[in-house]
Amino acid sequence: MHTFEHLFATYVRNTEYADEIVYVGLMGCRTVFYFLTRDTVSGAEAVRLVQQTLRYIIDFTGEIPGSKRKECDNYLAHDLEGAKQIAREMQPVMAKWSDRLLNYPRVLRQGESHTADARPNCE
Q1: Burial of 120 (0-12, 13-18, 19+ CB in 10 A)
Q2: What is the spatial distance between Cα 89 and Cα 35, in angstroms, rounded to a whole number?
Q3: Per-residue pLDDT tens over the stretch 27-43
Q4: 76: DSSP letter
């Protein structure tokens, strides 16, 4: 996952959305990562950017960006083929993804009852 995150971050930070990328980084568990954008990036644009990034990772050849000892505390954890495998596994899922799937139901607070208007309008 570490190499996947390096390649993902490199790609998105070098697109037309570079100034809109807030953060790309691994969570403490190092099994998933954050991808945060400003609200000026639409859901559809974010989904398309992830889809393009997966293609970039699958096609990537060469030296992994930021993978030298002086650049990365986890430089020994890099695995380009592993990153490509993750991207290949995610690609069919993301091919079917849309911005509609980015809307989550509102979490109920203690004491609230679930009503029809407790969910956001996902239309």
Answers
A1: exposed
A2: 18
A3: 777 777 889 999 999 99
A4: G
